[in-house]
Amino acid sequence: MIVGICGPEGIGKTTIARALHCRLSSSFQLSCFMENIRGIYPNGLDEYGLKLRLQELLLSKILNQNGMRIDHLGAIPKRLCDQKVLIILDDVDDLQQLEALANDTNLFGHGSRIIVTTEDQELLEQHGINKTYHVNFPTIEEAHKILCRYAFKGSLAPYGLQKLIKRATKLCSNLPLGLRVMGSMLRGKKEEDWESILLRLENSSIPKIDAVLRVGFDSLHENDQTLFLLIAVFFNYEDDDHVKAMLADSNLDGNRSLMGIFFDISTINDSMDISPRALKRKCNLQFLRIYNPRRDTNVRIHVPENIDFPPRLKLLHWEEYPGKCLPHTLRPENLVGLNLENSKLRHLWEGTQALTG
């Protein structure tokens, strides 16, 4: 059985899907939550390549084996035909994604279930999914309670703030995501602060919900803004403990030097030579992620054997790393994450390297 959850962005589809996964997963032999399919899996591949890549990711997640590779589209029924599985496909926006991952529950064992969240009702209809739950906007009363839950940690506003609550709810257009951001932003603030912030939002020239989210970000401490951006770019949907380990001792206080590089090499039209000293002066660089989402074999990057890696590097994620070994300047004792998927490495490095500080 395939079930759809449909509604606008920020309405709570993912929250509902996560709650279902948490409640139901123990009843299945295998389960997985494939989050943010729209954002993580680009459409740059041809149809067959896209489906192959998506199925690799599904198998990697559901079998808990990172970096699985398959060479044909029959791998899923071969591995999972006798397994009762629960699969959540979150934020689907393309029919090919459904054809790759939810074409037929008969690919899996008896009793398997697939839940799809999307903003596009027509997408579900095109795929023949007729069991759909439409997530509606909360009523005005419910919206007030959602905002109060985040602003006051209760369902009711203190006496005298009811008019401000109504104004704040109207600015959010009853959208749960906006209500959560608004409530969290206003928590602990005085009545005059509420008035100032709401007036600023009401007079904003950009769409109201965008203004709410923007003010929510702006209200963060400078260090928290940096943390927000690092997590959004490098560690979105990563395990909490992994993120904490990555960000420990990152020294954010007053630090405005470059901390991370996120580079899509599939955007390169011609070959590119990286200078040996390209990273040397970036002393605070801690997160380096170079990836090739289209798995384009025509991409050519030349990395010198004597390239200088920065000393504080914690994350080295370099898909298709072209070197035969890692340079001696890499300090492995500082690494928390290392991913050299599809690299040309023959050995890690020349000589002996210390693995602990």
Automatic annotation (TrEMBL):
Ranges of residues in domain AAA+ ATPase: 2-141
UniProt GO molecular function: ADP binding
- Which Gene Ontology BP terms does the record give? defense response
Name of the protein: AAA+ ATPase domain-containing protein
Q: Sorted alphabetically, which Gene3D superfamilies does this protein's record hold?
A: Helical domain of apoptotic protease-activating factors, P-loop containing nucleotide triphosphate hydrolases
Q: Which InterPro entries match?
A: AAA+_ATPase, Apaf_helical, Disease_R_plants, Leu-rich_rpt_3, NB-ARC, P-loop_NTPase
The answer to keyword Glycoprotein applying to this record is: no
